[in-house]
TrEMBL record:
Region named Disordered: 74-102
Alphabetized PANTHER family for the sequence: H REPEAT-ASSOCIATED PREDICTED TRANSPOSASE (PTHR30298), PROTEIN YBFL-RELATED (PTHR30298:SF0)
Compositional bias ranges of the Basic residues kind: 88-102
Domain of life according to the entry: Bacteria
NCBIfam families associated with the record: transpos_ISAs1
Transmembrane region(s): none
InterPro entries in the record: ISAs1_transpos, Transposase_11, Transposase_11-like
The organism of origin for this protein: Streptomyces cathayae
Record domain Transposase IS4-like: where: 109-322
Protein name: ISAs1 family transposase
Length: 367
């Protein structure tokens, strides 16, 4: 129901109270035989129910439901026929396939954490979640709430344990430098028969120094891209080197990505060089594929987290009871993914187009 533009439990309950009896029946609301009517849940009922829901089970059920829905192609106009700039831009980007990127041989999943800034536990600690999101369709395959006395690192394997072997085997898992851990690499390759692309920074100083000392000057640039948008221009150059004695389990290739950025209308460039390692050998993954996975990893920030924070107002939400903050976050993500799967590039525009109950039911495939 958050597709209808309602971000809080109070507004969702108000929306439900305005629904016709036929809509409440389709939503599965309880029938009161004495009043002869279907009863819409109130704000307290929603709050009590959400506090008892398992966020991980809800995410898994939503993932199974969304994967069963048909995916609408990304058209130059919105699915309702209206014209919108972001929709046109996304359509042009989808059609502009760079050489080498049309033959990506493996699906990728990005793992990243997020803080629910408005939510606070009873002990005063912040609420964090760890998510696994598919690159190609931005569907959240698994989610796990991080306890108050732990962090993302020990939750990595339990998060991916929620994903079936059929969905994870031979898949590339991309993570940031926080998860560049030998235990994570061994878990993916040895236990789950998957692959990894791990960013490496100075939290692994020995490995970072080893990567920086490789003879990069002698290695040619194997993939180059230039993009303009959102008021800036970015140039990326990718070099890949095969290795066999790296101090990291199962590592077969090292990636060096050099980025240059400038704001349009200026001449000053900022530069950044990042390194990553993967267990895929050169014949299993080329430079263009690795570059696509590395850039696709930030989709979880630009597509998932940004939409939930800005479009759904997640950082402003102050629901705090038990599991309710995480459960409401899952519902926001399911609404975002449903709109994206229906062909909406602009999620805010998609929400505005789904204020009517009939449109909501059709979007989610509710008979």
């Amino acid at each position: 129901m958050t597709c209808a533009g309602h971000n809080s439990l109070v507004s969702i309950a108000e929306w439900a109270r305005r629904c016709e009896q036929e809509v409440l029946a389709r939503l599965g609301c309880p029938y009161d035989p004495f009043a002869g009517r279907y009863r819409a849940p109130g704000e307290r009922t929603l709050r009590d129910a959400f506090a008892r829901v398992d966020p991980a089970a809800l995410t898994a059920a939503g993932f199974a439901h969304l994967t069963a829905l048909a995916t609408a192609p990304l058209a130059p106009v919105n699915p309702d026929g209206t014209r919108e700039r972001e929709q046109r831009r996304a359509h042009r980007t989808a059609r502009r396939v760079r050489p080498g990127h049309q033959s990506i041989r493996r699906r990728a999943i990005a793992v990243d954490g997020k803080c629910l800034r408005g939510a606070v536990r009873a002990d005063g600690s912040k609420v964090f979640v760890l998510s696994a999101v598919r690159h190609d369709d931005a569907l959240t395959a698994a989610l796990r709430e991080i306890g108050a006395k732990t962090n993302e690192i020990p939750e990595f394997a339990p998060l991916l344990d929620q994903i079936a072997d059929t969905d994870l085997t031979d898949t590339v898992v991309t993570v940031d430098a926080l998860h560049a851990r030998t235990a994570h690499a061994r878990y993916l390759v040895e236990q789950r028969k998957a692959h990894y692309l791990l960013s490496v920074k100075h939290n692994q100083p020995t490995l970072a120094r080893q990567l920086a000392k490789l003879p990069w000057r002698e290695i040619p640039v194997q993939d180059r891209s230039r993009d303009r948008g959102h008021g800036r221009e970015e140039v990326r150059e990718v070099k890949v080197a095969s290795v066999d004695n790296l101090l990291f389990p199962h590592a077969k290739q090292v990636v060096r990505i050099h980025r240059k950025r400038r704001r349009l209308g200026t001449k000053k460039w900022s530069t950044e060089t990042v390194y990553a390692v993967t267990d895929l050998a050169a014949h299993q993954a080329g430079a263009a594929e690795i570059a696509a996975w590395a850039r696709g990893h930030w989709m979880i920030e630009s597509t998932v987290h940004w939409s939930k924070d800005v479009v759904f107002g997640e950082d402003l939400s102050q629901v705090r009871r038990h599991r309710t903050p995480v459960v409401v976050s899952v519902f926001r993500d399911l609404a975002r993914a449903a709109l994206h799967r229906a062909g909406w590039a602009n999620i805010a525009s998609g929400r505005r187009a789904h204020t009517r109950p009939e449109a909501i039911l059709t979007l989610h495939g509710i008979p």
